[in-house]
Each structure stands twice: as C-alpha cells, then as structure tokens.
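User: For a teaching handout, I'd like to show students what a predicted protein-ligand complex looks like in token form. I'll give you the sequence and the SMILES for adenosine-5'-triphosphate. Please answer with just the structure.
Assistant: Understood, here is the input followed by the structure.
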Amino acid sequence: MVKETEQQKEQKHLDEVLGLIKKKESELDHSIEHAQNEAQNINSHFFDDVKLDYDGYSTSMDTALSIHQQQQMLAERQNAWQHSAKQLSTLQRLEKKPYFARVDFQEPNEDPETIYIGLGSFVDKEDHFLIYDWRAPISSIYYDGKLGKVSYNSPDGVQTVDMTKKRQFLIEDGKITNMFDTNESIGDQMLLNVLNEKSSTQMKSIVTTIQREQNKIIRNTSADLLFVQGAAGSGKTSAIMQRVAYLLYRYRGNLTSSDVIMFSPNQLFNDYVKNVLPEMGEQNMVQMTYWQFVSRRVPGMNVENLFEQFEDNEQNDKIVNLKNSLQFFNAVTRYAKHLEKNGLIFKNIYFKSKKKPFFDKEKIKEIYYGFNENYHLRNRIEATKEALINSLNRRIEPETKKAWVDKTIESLDQEQLNKLYDRPDQEFESSAKEEHFLARKIVIKQLKQVSRKIHQNRFLNIRAQYLRFLRAVPKLIDLSKWDISEEEWDAHIENVKERFRNGRIKMADISPYLYLYDLVTGRRTDYEMRYAFIDEIQDYTPFQLAYLKYNFPRAKFTMLGDLNQAIFTKDESKILLSQISKLFDPEKTDVVQLTKSYRSTKEITNFTKQILRQGEKIEAFDRRGPKPAFYKRDSIEKEYSALQDILAENDEQKLTTAIITKTLAEAQEVAKVLKERNIKATLIGSANQRLVPGTLVMPSYLAKGLEFDAVVAWGVSKENYHQLDETQLLYTIASRAMYKLDLIYTGEKSPLFDNLDEKTYVNK
Ligand SMILES: Nc1ncnc2c1ncn2[C@@H]1O[C@H](COP(=O)(O)OP(=O)(O)OP(=O)(O)O)[C@@H](O)[C@H]1O
C-alpha cells in the first residue's frame, strides 16, 4: 500500500499545481483584457495627449518627443500583452498535462530539492519554479543519468549533483493514471507505453521519453557540424525536432524560427512533421526540399524532379559521380577564379531594335575586363553594372531626339498624357520645353527595361558559361581517374546542351550551375541563417552539401542520416562522411551514432537488419509482434488475393497499412486493381499530396522518413530487386513497418534476401 499513498501524495501535489495554473490563467486573462483596453484607450486619445505645438523649433521637438513617448507606451502595452498571451498559451498546454517527471537531487552543501519537469515552465508569485521546462539546464539530468552522481551544463559551467529519485507520471485529465520510479535513463516501461501507440499521419513529440544518446544530439551547442548516423527508426527525425525546440528555448531572444532552416526529403515529410513544434509551443522553422531550394532560383527552367531522378535509368553513373563530387565543386571554384582574367561570356542588351544592340557585348566585355586586377568577381560585376547605369543615364538625352519618342507621345490619350506631368497645373516657358520634358519622361520610363536587365545580370550568358565550363573540365580534372573518356565527356556536353534548349536541367547539373552563377555574379549568401538541419543526408551528394555550406556560411549544421538507406546516391553514400568531414573543422565536428531502433518490433528489426551487409550493429527494442511473412504466389491474380487477405486482417486489427512498391507505375497499377475490387486505398503518387488515414499505396521514394503500423512490400521478386545497390531500397521499405510486415512476390524471391535466417520469418 506504500505505493498507493505515494500516488495519493503526488495526486495532491498535482491538484495543487493545477489549481495554481487555473488561478494564474484567470489573472492573465484579466491583465490581457486590461492591456487591450488600455491600448485602445491610448490609441483613441493619442492626439489628445500629444502636445501639438508647431511654433518654433524647440516646441516642435517637444511635440515629436511627446508622440514618441505615446508610441512607446503603446508598444510597451502591446509587448506586455503579447508576453501575457504567450504565457497563457503555455499554461493552457500545461493544464492538460502539467508535467511528466519528478527528480529529487541534492547539490553539494545545499538542501535536497525536488523538481517537476513539463512542456513549459510555470513560476508562481514568489519566483518559485513549480514546473521546469524540459529544456532548462537542470532538466537534463532526468534524461541523462542514472541515480547517483550526475552532471549537467548550467550557465555557470558543469554542475554535479546527487540524484536520489527519478519518477515518471502518466497523467490524463488531471489524474495520475500511473507512475513509476526508475533508475534507467528513461524507464523502458514508459517508453513501451509510448511506442505501443498506433501510427498516425502526424509525427509526435518524444519529450517525455528522450533517450540519453538522443539528449546528446538535442543539447549539443558546441559543434559546427553535428553528424548523426542512426539506424532506421532510431529517432533521428524526432531528435531534430526536439533539438530545434531546444535551441529556440536556449537562445530565446536571440534566435527565432526564421533563423533555422531544415532540408527534408520531400513535401510529404514536411507535412508529416509539421505539428511537432507547434505542439511544443514553438513555431515551425523554414522547411524545404533541396529541389525547392534550387528550383526557385531558376524559374524559367524545369529541374529534374524526384520521380524523374528515381526512374531515370539512362544516366551515365560515372559522369554523375564526378559531377556530384567535391572535386567537381572545387573545379567550379577554380574555373570561376580564372574568369577574373578572361573567358566570361556576355550578351547584348537590346532596346527597341533587335538589329542593333543598345549595349554591345564586346563593349560590356571591355568594361568588365577594364578594371585592374584587384577587382575580383563581385567587384567586377558591380563596377560593370555601375558603369552601364552611368552610360544609360548619359543616353537619355540623345534618345529623346529619336523618332519613336514623338510617335509615342502622339499615340497617348489625354489621360495617359496627364499622368506624365509632375503636377496638373505644371507650367513651361515654351512648348519646346514642354515637349522636351515629356520626351524625357517617356524615355526614362522605357529605359527602365534596360536598367532592370542590367540589375538582373541579363548581360551575362550563364547557360553558355556553364557549357564552356564543362568543356574546360578535362583541363581541370583528370577524367581518366573517373574512368571517363574524352569522347564520353563530349557526348555528355551535347546532352546537357540539348536539354538546355528544351528548358530542362538535371539534378546533377543544377547545383554546379547555380554555384557558378553565384560566384560570377557575386550573389550574397545568407549570413543570417544560424542553424541548418539536413535530414536523410545519405540522399545528398557531396557537391550539394558543399553548396549548402557555401550558401549558409555562418550556420551550424546538423546532418542526420542512415547510410544504409541511400535511395538516390546508392553506394556512393558510403564515402559521403569522409567527404563531408573535409568541409568542416575536425575539432568542431561531433559524430553521434544511434544504434537502437524504436520504430519497429523486435521481430521486424531483427529481420530487416539482415538485409544489410553490415546490419549487426542495429539493436532492437524489446517490443513484440508477429514475424514478417513472405507470400510467394504463382500468378499476379493470386498475389492480389493475398494482398486482399492481408488488408482484411490488418483492418480487423485496426492497423494502418502502406503498400509500398518500387516504382510509381507499380503503385498506380496496384491502386487501380484495388479500386476495381472495391477496396478503399489512397494512391500517394506525388509528394504534394497529404497523408490521409486508411490504406495507402506509394512508391518507395515517397515513403522516406514515414512509418506505418503495417507495411506490405509489393513485388519483392528477383526480377524487381536484383542489383546489390537496391539493398538500401528494400531496407528502407521494410523498415517503415512498426508492427507488421508482409512481403509479396511471384517467381523467385529477390536474392537480396538470401542471407536471411529462416527463423526470423514465416512463409504464408
Ligand atoms: N525517445 C523516444 N521515445 C519515444 N519514441 C521514440 C523515441 N525515439 C524514437 N521514437 C519513435 O520511433 C519512431 C522512429 O523515429 P524517427 O522517425 O525519428 O526515426 P528516424 O531515425 O528518423 O527513422 P528513419 O531514418 O527510418 O526515417 C517514431 O515513431 C518515434 O516517435
């Protein structure tokens, strides 16, 4: 019965805290109302209270000051109001579940202390913390250590305390439904409770059960590059979301969500994680895919998308490997440097006539290369633009004498004409002066097109420049080391050129293209961005990462990935880590490994890890479920019957199922057949769709980062998966399953399953 009385005591404490929260809420309600009224009041009496006095200098200074004071008062009230509103929203969140843990500890030479940890802080009148935010320095001991001596980073440096109790609570509607004392970092019991929940279309926060290793990632503030290699389902994405929340708290006042950018694998995934931060009371960071990041820079071009990239079998791997490498990045850098001396390609700028250029490209070239050698790319372009604008200004006058100007004036109706004057009653000494005035107005207006072209660097020919760079590559890089012949390279350039002609560009070209553009035009990179997160790093190329680093020179990077799940870069991802490390100071690089997988049952994790050639390191979490099952069928018809049976069974168990195929075409086919059979399933064929409850059908590359109660891996035959570099693909598909995994095929099973231990699956 001891436990019961303990629980009663805790319930009493909880009731007290809830009472105080309620009280504070009504106080805040009051003060918000008050502040609002007052602000309204100030607004309506604004000019009554301001001393309006326009005689003489000093009094008008008084007036200005008075206005300023009023404005400041208003701003203060508004601030107080916003502050209260924010506090209120924190309390409203706490009201549902004030805290989830209690820790007892003692600092050397101090009295023992008890603290409660929750989603936000709650302080009563006496500045006494009734609840500590999970991100507060002291809260770290809850996640980090076992009972006994434990250290944490405080604002005054590392502190060591003696932790004597760690208690976890499950609270529902103001009642403690369960509580346990634990000695583990976070008791498995609590974790099991959380993990047993069903999957949903939205990711959840893991605040209550952050694991020790994850806590390290979340609270790391020292590394310029934090690299996390983690098995599928080890909580990498969860950890990122918590980390963003942590950083926003730790640097509150100095860091806002717009200083943080996250690159995610696809739009579907963005949708999946979009509630995590708001639920923790924080705003979402800037989120985009790499494709969006590059595409928005080239509105006139069609950049190869996820689907094309995945389903493109024509590309020459050797050439793609070269273009994705750091060596290629360095080659662009060197090439651009050489453009400071010569080789930049210019375009004529036209105005009115297509026959004779307004600014001749030879002339522009002369200006550009006319500056002395201290001018680098950025100054050169800026000075060239300035010179062109000056020259443009000098050409206004001569242009007014041209015939087109008179014609234009004649063609204007009265209203259009009136608009040209500065004032309706504007007077002129003579009609010649008036005509000249109007002519100038017209010319200036029309020449705006030219000045716009100058500002937008339209006198450069970046496409031609990029092709010229490609032609120079054999001089910059030893192609034979990449096993590429000169003929292959030349043919490839023709290919790129042809694609340009159709307004298209491949993923392997867009980053070098933009990088070259940035260097040549001296585009300012984003110095404001403070943190950049890249999830699913294995799908990025070294070039892309180098380019991101170039774009966000002051940002600290957190890169997370599983080199075993490389879908786009396949085996190349293995060398990724060594390449990335070259971009950062090794002293400021931290690498963290997460080996425990939380997503799936032990049966599924133990099965999927065998698909990998080096999967031994992955540890399963002890949560049980059925063994994965293979369904070998001898006809497509029978495959569908099996699928139907599986879906019926999953439905009965209330499991959400995703049928994952290799390609989009297969997914479309499966969705079509299911529809014919009146089985409800949603095809996710593009990343712009929403995840919806119920059965889903999707191609492998859209399943990245997601999870489902049950997965059906469709068509896992030898015919479909036989290349070694498809291992990662199969692994990604299989590791999306939380509780149940079924694999269907006809003919022979994929040889990539050859090493499976028979005891880890069943045949059905
Ligand atoms: N500390 C934790 N407490 C509770 N649940 C956790 C914890 N860590 C991870 N999980 C759960 O495990 C699942 C997998 O997490 P997450 O998606 O973050 O993994 P991941 O490493 O990004 O996976 P992948 O690389 O396979 O996409 C999620 O359901 C997540 O909620």
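For the handout, you might add this sentence: The chain is about 45% helix and 15% strand.
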